[in-house]
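Quick question, first post here. What does this chain look like in 3D?
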Amino acid sequence: MKPGLDRETITRALRRLSELLRERGVMGEICLFGGTAMVLAFNARERTKDVDAVFQPPQLVRELANIVRDELHLPDGWINDAVKGYLAPDLNPVAYDLPQFENLRVTAPPAEYLLAMKCSAARITSGADPGGDVEDIRFLVRHLGLASADEALAIVARYYPKSRVPPRTQYLLEEIFEESGGRP
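> Answer (accepted):
Ran it through. Tokens below.
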């Protein structure tokens, strides 16, 4: 079995989270980021190492996530809100064709926002996230129909000040467009 969480596992975990919220008479909200957005919102890859998200109500979702973890034998930290430290203003999440549940509204950021986040991190990883941000950036650039590194950087600049974007991001974007002859 490949490491990480696939579409089915994530969906099953979110469904169970919704059931637990319903038992408590609470409506929850979750906005998915990172690899989970790439898996569920964009069908860009098969799996992710964890569910990066922001959620409401935070304390109750954390508590219920531990129950889901134990019931479904998920790894510690299968869902976390560490991404909130990297959020840019103007999120405006959308529902895409994401699974929705009776007591859990699921959204993800627009593709442009996700591209900006991925570019501001520009991490290269392995394991459950082969290719890391690089493959996600390639996908999002294609998805958005961008024609140059400058177009991609302009999107990043809408969300993040230049000081928050590492120099490697520009080089990475230039390389992506060079490798593909101008089309990622």
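Residues 5-107 form one domain.
The CA atoms of residues 48 and 105 lie 21 Å apart.
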